[in-house]
Design a protein that fits this description.
Low-confidence stretches: 1-9
Order of helices and strands: EHEHEHEHHHHEEEEHEHHHHEE
Number of strands: 11
Shape: globular
Helix content: 25-40%
Radius of gyration: 20 Å
Structural class: alpha/beta
Mean pLDDT: 93
Number of helices: 12
Distance between the termini: 28 Å
Length: 397
């Protein structure tokens, strides 16, 4: 137990989400990634109602050689607490966990998490290729010569789940169909037109068994989340959303070191997050889950405890993931339909907060069976090829 100078226990402060925002998203041809960072940051600060002078912590990854230094400089910030953890798509949930701990311990008062990417625009303009390479050094040198791409790793894991538990391609396709149905009511979603299971199954093959609609969209966009100590809550413009608990975990780098292709590190991060929040999966009103591929949604639902291992296929069949379903998942349309500029984890937190505040709009606001606003949400990010996971439990203030 940490003690104050007087010898009494040091109280851990509660942590609230003060502001959230998206930058322009989807097709953004006239902006740089730095500009999207700045746009999202300004909007999140405006959403909070706080002055920028309160920000003393900053977290950023994926842009620049010294990500938090360069981006903070661009934003005109001089933070005294920084984080540049980069573990793929789970980065932002891991950073949120780090920031919440720092705020609770008194090492920072207000931490801004911000992300922006022009992945789609860069590809269209020829500034980058479609290939995503993690290099051939270290453990990956034993896989790269065989063309074992990132998507191939996910496809291999999905095939293992099919073999071991009888999961069908139709069940995986229903995840994409429900994500698109959720996106239909989201004006910010890149794709909103309905799709069918047959359309998912008959699309062009990307990596067996994944056709194009089993895979996330490629978009531009950014977002920001401002976390603050409870001391700032009386000054907030919106009702606060509280960080109740968080957990992080890493699993493997080389596929040969992954003990079980049907279990992701969310099985660990989720358990820790729920334990620290003092809630059970059955109490969660909706979930925001990283979905670069349909299989990610299915296996994460299992690993978070929403259904038993191997029962994910049956769980997603009955429309449970729809906005009005038993467990709404990816209420904005997710990476499969709404947006996916690269590392999507921060978008999960933005959507979760908006839903908990009741700000999603009449056509897509999640409500409990009695018509009231949701009370509890979980956001779970995945990084690499199920290499890392961060899970955050949020509660309405």
């Amino acid at each position: 137990m940490r003690l104050t100078s007087a010898g009494s226990p040091l109280r851990r402060r509660k942590v609230a989400v003060a502001g959230v925002a998206l930058s322009d998203c989807g097709r953004v041809d006239g902006a740089t990634p730095y500009a999207l960072h700045a746009q999202a940051a300004r909007r999140a600060l405006a959403d909070s109602g706080l002055d920028r002078s309160v920000i003393d912590g900053f977290a950023s990854a994926g842009l620049g050689t010294l990500a938090p230094v360069e981006v903070a400089e661009y934003l005109g910030l001089r933070p005294t607490w920084v984080d540049s953890t980069s573990v793929g798509g789970a980065t932002w949930e891991v950073m949120a966990a780090h920031a919440a701990d720092a705020i609770a311990a008194g090492h920072a008062d207000a931490v801004l998490l911000v992300y922006g990417s022009t992945a789609r625009a860069d590809l269209k303009a020829g500034r980058r290729t479609a290939n995503l390479s993690f290099g051939t050094r270290g453990p990956l040198q034993f896989e790269a010569p065989y063309g074992h791409t990132l998507i191939a790793k996910y496809a291999m894991a999905a095939r293992r789940h099919q073999h071991q538990y009888g999961t069908t391609l139709e069940q995986l396709a229903r995840i994409a169909v429900q994500a698109r149905a959720n996106a239909a009511a989201n004006p910010d979603a890149l794709y909103r037109e309905p799709i069918t299971v047959d359309e998912v199954l008959s699309g062009p093959m990307i990596a067996d068994p994944f056709t194009a609609l089993h895979c996330c969209v490629r978009s531009d966009g950014g977002c920001a989340v401002l976390l603050v100590a409870e001391d700032h809550v009386p000054d907030l413009a919106p009702r606060p959303v509280w960080v109740l608990g968080a957990g992080t975990a890493v699993s493997h780098s080389a596929m040969a070191e992954w003990p079980d292709f049907t279990v992701s590190p969310a099985a660990v991060s989720g358990r820790l997050a729920f334990e620290r929040a003092g809630v059970r999966p059955a109490e969660i009103d909706f979930a925001e889950i990283y979905d670069a591929f349909t299989y990610m949604t299915l296996v994460t639902l299992e690993d978070l405890g929403f259904c038993a291992k191997g029962e994910g296929g049956a769980f997603v069949e009955q429309g449970r993931l729809l906005r009005g379903g038993a467990l709404p998942v990816n209420t904005d349309g997710g990476g499969l339909s709404a947006c996916h500029p690269g590392m999507r984890g921060l978008f999960l937190l933005v959507e979760a907060v908006r839903q908990l505040r009741g700000e999603a709009g009449p056509d897509r606001q999640v409500r409990r069976p009695d018509g009231s606003l949701p009370e509890l949400a979980v956001a779970s990010g995945t990084g690499g090829w199920f290499c890392s996971s961060g899970t955050v439990v949020l509660g309405r203030g």
